[in-house]
Amino acid sequence: MSDHHGHHHTEEHLQSSDLLRDVVIGMSDGLTVPFALAAGLSGAVSTSGIIVIAGIAEIAAGGIAMGLGGYLAGKTEQDHYDSELKREYEEVERIPEKEKQEVKDFFESIGLSEELQNKATEEIAKDKKQWVDFMMKFELGLDMPDPKRARNSALNIGVSYIVGGIIPLSPYFFIENSKEALKFSVVATLICLFVFGYFKSKITGVPVLSGALKVMLIGALAAGAAYGVALLFK
Amino acid sequence: MSDHHGHHHTEEHLQSSDLLRDVVIGMSDGLTVPFALAAGLSGAVSTSGIIVIAGIAEIAAGGIAMGLGGYLAGKTEQDHYDSELKREYEEVERIPEKEKQEVKDFFESIGLSEELQNKATEEIAKDKKQWVDFMMKFELGLDMPDPKRARNSALNIGVSYIVGGIIPLSPYFFIENSKEALKFSVVATLICLFVFGYFKSKITGVPVLSGALKVMLIGALAAGAAYGVALLFK
């Protein structure tokens, strides 16, 4: 949700929020799921070869799924906005009294007096574009999407996933014994998850230490569960 | 984003949107990534045993990562809301004129006259709770989060991921030859992705056929890429 009237603290959040959100989504999944997959397979097979292949396949699949998924989510948002915009233009023509009532309801909901509700509604409805923009934002809660956003988002998420996924996998490239490689993977990944969780918490404004520990804990739990079920099905 | 003044079409979107969003996120990733992983491994190994283990490890890891991820995202949203709420209460005490100016700026931005901007601002600022609620919603763009939401979201996403992931993996349980199992997996998964994409598009209000095809295409591309890189690294 965008904000054009913000405090300094809000605006700081805003400038980084889109890219940040993408990198956070991509990296966190990239660090966590390939890590857990490699850990799980380390419980079931003794050599790193197959783990590297599985890990690479997972990173490629995950990067594409998340990247294209992000792209389509952005496209869908745009299409949805466009179709609702068209519908609102039709409605202010076809049922203006109902649409005015909805503007009035909005002003009532924020606490204006009956007199101001009516006056403000008349002013909004004087200009059709202004009226529709108002309905889009405050009746439907839709902000105009950024057209470049879908493309950028896809790229950011996909690349972040791949970068994140290479970290837990890298020890398996160099160490043939999977149990040995796992030790390095666990250490490297948990450190990265902690650092990543720290910055994520810092930027989203939650306590950094507990935030970092939580992100690390998710990774450890996912890896532990994967290790457990892989042993079970071995 | 909530909407308390909506048309019938908006309200329909709303009732299902939270659960739907979770199931869509969980199932789409669950169908796509384990499918692509299994397909990729089918290009590199000839028996299904290791693919089942890798797939199960991935589903467990992904389900936990997405479920816990969803839970923490909900918690973070709640914490962020609470800390911004506290800050707004402090600011209307400490710098009321600046905060009033921001209310006025909002009314200016939607197109009200100078006279109504001032009158409406005075009415909003009469009641401190009403004033802060207004700032939260229209200055910061924050809706009050639903406290049960984080827990439910986690469960919905995690379970949806596991359910989605079992579908592409199931042929490998019964068919020892991985290339044979892959054929059934491809058919079953692409059908599920199409059906899933159809309903997803229907509910999000985009053209259903192209929406369904897009979801299916993502799955196919991810699986193809995974197959390709697994062959390459074999």
> Could you name the ranges of chain A where pLDDT drops below 50 across 5 or more consecutive residues?
1-15
Structural class of chain A: mainly alpha
- Elements of chain A, N to C (H/E): HHHHHHHH
Helix proportion of chain A: over 70%
- Strand tally of chain A is 0
Largest interface: A-B, 84 and 85 residues
Distance between the termini of chain A: 47 Å
- Number of domains in the coordinates of chain A? 1
Mean pLDDT of chain A: 85
Estimated radius of gyration of chain A: 25 Å
Count up the helices of chain A.
Answer: 8
Strand residues, percent of chain A: under 5%
Protein name (chains A, B): Iron transporter
Pfam family, one (chains A, B): VIT1
Keywords (chains A, B): Membrane, Transmembrane, Transmembrane helix
Membrane topology (chains A, B): Multi-pass membrane protein
List the helices and strands and how they pair.
Two copies of one chain form a homodimer.
Chain A: H1 8-44, H2 49-94, H3 96-109, H4 114-125, H5 128-139, H6 149-174, H7 178-204, H8 208-233
Helix pairs in contact in A: 1-2, 1-6, 1-7, 1-8, 2-3, 2-5, 2-6, 3-4, 3-5, 6-7, 7-8
Write up this protein.
- 2 copies of one chain form a homodimer.
- With 234 residues, chain A is mainly α.
- Chain A has one domain (19-233).
- Chain A has 8 helices and no strands.
- Chain A is elongated, with a radius of gyration of 25 Å.
Keywords, separated by commas or semicolons:
homodimer; 234 residues; mainly alpha
State the gist of this model:
Two copies of one chain form a homodimer. The first copy, chain A, contains eight helices and no strands. With 234 residues, chain A is an all-alpha fold.
